[in-house]
Amino acid sequence: MKNIIFFSGCLVLLSVFSACKKELVDVVNTTITAPALQAPSNNTLINLSPLSNAVVTFEWDAAKTGNYTMSFYEVEFDKENGDFSNPVYKAITNRLGVENKLLLTHRILNRVAHLAGIAELTKGKVKWRVKANTGVVSAVSQSGTLELNRPEGTTDIPTELYLTGTATEGGTDLSKAVKFKKISDGVFEIYAALNAGTYTLVNKVSGEPLSFVLRNGLISSGKLENSPVSTKIIYRINLDFNTASATLTEIVSVGLWFSGYNAIKANLQYDAGGIWKTTFNNAWKVESWGKDERYKFRVVEKDAAGTLTTKNWGSSKKDNNRPTATEAASYYFLTAVDNTQYDYSYKFAAESVNTEVQFKMYSSGDYTHTVIFK
């Protein structure tokens, strides 16, 4: 009898499970129609301007599905002769792929063109299509074609960057190439001297696989370029690979500025590797209340148009005590500050007729300075 009851129970459970399974199948069973491309129209020519805020809107008719199922969209790009088996670029729309349109900046489309094999200063075509998916079934639109006209300027983004060549401080020996400081993804900065000669930028000290040059304020792919100067000039070079833009700013002078005197009391001379030095008579300003030992740095820069600008470098703290022999290294870190007479200044630990100061804008660590009493 127990065996009969158990067998009957199993039949009931199997019946319930079968009914549930059938109900689930009915719920997820749906249909989908392929989306139809609307814009941009086929063979549209787009003159890319990556440094602008221009965008291109890709639109398509929403896919129709059964059972009120929601569709999600992915846009794929490929070479003109590609079959989308390995798209060069993919993107989903806003709201996790629900919207049936996609906005891409000219900067991104410039990278799509590069990935499709279109060189700088040339035109070429790419294909695009839309894939609709419910999570159960999917459908793909017909493909559209765009013609992209690329300007000068690279789209590759290195993870690290070095400066090398006869015009540079390290010469052509790649083991002595000068490294850029990475500010953020694709953004680099370096303080370095350029001389007459040639240079190149490489993303590895081996020189492979990517190399770049600077032309007309843009970063371009290239192996070698003539230096922009015929005599030695110290520069702050800022590169943004996200926009392929380059800015060279001449460092005219670095001055040690005393708060008490409200003046520069010593000029630092460039040495190498982003370091300026001076040795001077460190005599503090005598005031009615004592001696004023406060100081910071003033740097004069000149842009490409010849406009001079003064930048102030000092402490992140508005007021400081004199440093001790065991002071933390962070006390000497350099921060861009305002031009007030007393605020955000450092303090010398002692007076000395032979005080050496080094202003260090090097790439291997935090911008900082050192003080040595001789």
UniProtKB/TrEMBL annotation:
Lineage top rank: taxon: Bacteria
Residues covered by the SusE outer membrane protein domain: 26-131
InterPro entries noted in UniProt: SusE
Signal peptide start and end residues: 1-21
Keyword annotations of the record: Signal
Name of the protein in its database record: SusE outer membrane protein domain-containing protein
Source species: Pedobacter hiemivivus
